[in-house]
């Protein structure tokens, strides 16, 4: 019983990390039009507040993954939570005290991206370490982590709008506050996993990773690409929806935040159910990825046909359900398919790809919105259907065989 309670405490504490990292990024999305006006900058410049954070994370995540394999998950996770909080504090101070804060805000977001690189991506292999040998607990734990992540996306537009209604810069101030909460939860509640095998030297590590990608790159790259596509569509659509609600429909403030949360709520519920139902069934993992991305594709085809106010939300809720099905399944495929010694590094590559999607979504959607808005839905549907075919062709339902092949590398 105590073991189960300890497992629950571990999950709660670790789930706070993606929740905090998501809040620290996504709660700025509904505030971006307000920041654009307050700082007198362009739509592209304001989108960089999201993009620079993600670009830095993309570069740093593989480094953090290797360090977590070498020195331990907790030793990397805790300092990075503090760095993320410090980055948020820098942006908050600049936005409050400086006359022209935009460059310092970007610098703070860079620092926050460095911290995030060693925080949220380390959680997935941490779950694998804590529940080693218990596939069902691992899959359920990963489902809880994705649910926390998506719950953060549901709460973030509401919290961001509420804080910005007070002062436009208040969302920046809450980033260090949330980071400290997560830091203390992980510090006191997360057990130290059993001793890991000594990580290889950098040269050996590079050779091992090269062999892994040479042998199993087909399914690994497929999972990476789909993860990137999902985040590209998710953050691009959120940027598009935030801008459209304010400029096209005249809806702003808390009302806009609540509307942004609707499709994300469907995503969160779907993610929770998917994570619980998959278990260790590899066939279900593949089904959830294929069916989920098919739903995403059909929803954007529907939006291309008609994206009036009510249909916009109906189709985006369908897309949210599809993404919610796919994300825990992708996490499970990655975690089940890699050997523990390289899990931190391989999952970090996966998270880097997800951050590429986060970085690319807002500026690309902003550019399309300025020129040919209808292309947004065609591009999104195309990305979805490519993901479906890649999953059908390259993701096997026999992930255990893959894991065994990785152990022989």
From TrEMBL:
Any one Pfam family match given in the protein's UniProt record, by short name: MFS_1
Residue spans crossing the bilayer: 12-32, 44-64, 76-98, 174-191, 219-241, 253-275, 287-305, 311-334, 346-368, 374-395
Cellular localization per UniProt: Cell membrane
Coiled coil: none
Alphabetically ordered keywords of this record: Cell membrane, Membrane, Transmembrane, Transmembrane helix, Transport
The keyword Membrane appears for this protein: yes
Classification via PROSITE patterns: MFS
Keyword DNA-binding in annotation: no
Major facilitator superfamily (MFS) profile domain mapped to chain residues: 10-399
GO cellular component term of the entry, any: plasma membrane
CDD domains: MFS_YfmO_like (cd17474)
Predominant location category: membrane
One of the record's GO molecular function terms: transmembrane transporter activity
Top-level taxonomic group: Bacteria
Bilayer disposition of the protein: Multi-pass membrane protein
Protein's recorded name: MFS transporter
Organism: Bacillus amyloliquefaciens
């Amino acid at each position: 019983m105590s073991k189960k309670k300890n497992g629950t405490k571990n999950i709660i504490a670790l789930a706070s990390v993606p929740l905090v990292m998501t809040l620290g990024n996504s709660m700025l999305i509904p505030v971006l039009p307000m920041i654009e006006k307050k700082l007198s900058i362009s739509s592209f410049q304001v989108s960089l507040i999201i993009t620079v954070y993600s670009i830095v994370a993309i570069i740093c995540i593989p480094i953090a993954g290797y360090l977590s394999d070498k020195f331990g998950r907790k030793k990397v996770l805790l300092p990075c939570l503090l760095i993320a909080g410090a980055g948020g504090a820098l942006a908050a101070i600049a936005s409050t005290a400086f006359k022209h804060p935009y460059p310092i805000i970007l610098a703070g977001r860079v620092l926050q991206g460095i911290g995030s690189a060693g925080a949220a991506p380390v959680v997935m292999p941490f779950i694998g370490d804590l529940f080693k040998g218990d596939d069902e607990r691992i899959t359920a734990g990963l489902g809880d982590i994705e649910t926390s992540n998506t719950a953060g996306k549901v709460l973030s537009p509401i919290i961001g709008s509420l804080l910005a209604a007070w002062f436009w810069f208040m969302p920046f101030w809450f980033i260090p506050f949330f980071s400290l909460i997560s830091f203390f939860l992980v510090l006191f509640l997360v057990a130290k996993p059993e001793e890991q095998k000594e990580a290889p030297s950098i040269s050996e590590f590079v050779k091992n990773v090269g062999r892994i990608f040479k042998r199993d790159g087909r399914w690994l790259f497929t999972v990476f690409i789909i993860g990137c596509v999902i985040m590209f569509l998710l953050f691009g659509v959120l940027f598009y929806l935030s801008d459209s609600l304010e400029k096209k429909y005249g809806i702003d403030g808390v009302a806009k935040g609540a509307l942004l949360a609707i499709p994300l709520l469907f995503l969160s519920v779907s993610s929770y159910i998917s994570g619980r139902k998959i278990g260790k069934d590899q066939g279900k993992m593949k089904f959830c990825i294929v069916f989920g991305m098919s739903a995403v594709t059909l929803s954007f085809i529907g939006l291309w046909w008609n994206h009036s106010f009510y249909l916009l939300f109906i189709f985006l809720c369908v897309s949210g359900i599809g993404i919610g099905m796919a994300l825990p399944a992708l996490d499970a495929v990655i975690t089940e398919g890699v050997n523990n010694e390289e899990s931190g590094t391989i999952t970090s590559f996966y998270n880097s790809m997800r951050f590429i999607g986060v970085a690319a979504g807002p500026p690309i959607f902003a550019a399309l919105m300025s020129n040919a808005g209808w292309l947004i839905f065609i591009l999104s549907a195309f990305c979805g259907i490519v993901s479906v075919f890649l999953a059908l062709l390259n993701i096997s339902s026999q992930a255990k065989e893959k894991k065994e092949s990785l152990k022989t590398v």
